[in-house]
Amino acid sequence: MERIHRSLSEKTLTKMTPTEFRDLVRRGEWSTVNTSACRGHAHANLVIVPKSLAYEFFLFCHRNPKPCPVLDVTEPGEYHPHFLAPEADLRTDLPRYRVFENGAIIDEPFDIIKYWNDNLVAFLLGCSTNFDWRLRDANVQYRYIGDFKTNIDCVPAGCFHGSMVVSTRLFKTSHDAVRAVQITSRNLAAHGPPVHIGSPHDIGVHDLYHPDMFSFHEEIQPVEQDEIIMSWACGVTPQIVALKSNIPFMISHYPGHMFVTDKLSEELEAM
Predict the structure, then answer these.
(1) pLDDT at residue 215 in the model
(2) C-alpha 229: how far from its chain's center?
(3) What is the predicted pLDDT for the residue at 237?
(4) Measured distance CA(12)–CA(65) in Å, rounded
(5) Among 25, 143, 214, 248, which has the highest number of CB atoms less than 10 A from its own CB?
(6) Residue 25 shares a structural domain with residue 121
């Protein structure tokens, strides 16, 4: 399908319902980042693996709940996530995907219909977009920098092993940083509290101005003297794990192109 990217303001995206946004994506009219879409509704990261690897990946998520908080899991071959959005189609309703084969990225398509088969199991994982809304609503002053590889090892499970990815934000004052810890600690379904505060060098991040995985910014402004650097576990982690572990086959969302659920973020906070 030819992609026709509609020009929509952030205000319009924010006010859309999840069904309206997913229909827009399914029609091929939206294929870029969607972090502003459907304000208040939970976004989710996607991982799809063959049934033969599903238990090992579920165990990996259980052992690494900060980067991989599980929100929903489908039956083999089922592409409707019954808990989060029963009318949605995981094959078409994300703006963009990544396909991994034998530890390499082989495709970044706008739908995965040609890759789908009845042997696949889909996992939907929590996303930090959900707590970003809460931080802004609480008037916490900060700026998002990007997603980075780290030297923080995940707990392995079966064939899945690798290091954590973090999303990094800079907070204007110590009050803002404390409020961020308080707010995110209440939402374990969106990665919970930060995994690191302070120098990013301590976790293997040596260049804040060039994120490894994803950023909204072509040029990142210098860190100000009083800004506090804080990093949260990130749902892009399984993508690094797929590369490190040479996973035979896996599909994920393209970074920044998450699945929009029917659930409000507040509904998932107690999970």
Answers:
(1) 63
(2) 20
(3) 97
(4) 33
(5) 25
(6) yes
One DSSP character per residue, the chain reads: ---------HHHHHH--HHHHHHHHHTT---S--TTSSTTEEEEEEEEEEHHHHHHHHHHHHH-TTT--EEEEPPTT--S-TTT-TT--TTTSSS-EEEEETTEEEE--S--GGG--TTEEEEEEE-THHHHHHHHHTT--EEEEEEEEEEEEPPPBTTB--EEEEEEEEESSHHHHHHHHHHHHT-GGGT-S-SEES-GGGGT---TTS-SSB-S-SSPPPPPTT-EEEEEE-TTHHHHHHHHHT-SEEEEEPTT-PEEEEEEHHHHTT-
Residue 1 lies in a domain: no
CA 122, CA 197: separation in Å to the nearest integer? 32
Token pair listed for 225: 């003297």
User: By residue range, what is the domain housing residue 230?
Assistant: 130-238
Residues 122 and 17 in one domain: yes
Q: What pLDDT is stored for residue 185 in this prediction?
A: 95
Question: What is the structure's pLDDT at 7?
Answer: 67
Per-run averaged pLDDT (10 residues), the chain, 271 residues: 61 92 94 87 97 98 98 98 97 97 96 97 95 92 94 98 96 97 94 96 92 73 91 96 97 95 87 59
CATH number at residue 213: 3.30.2040.10
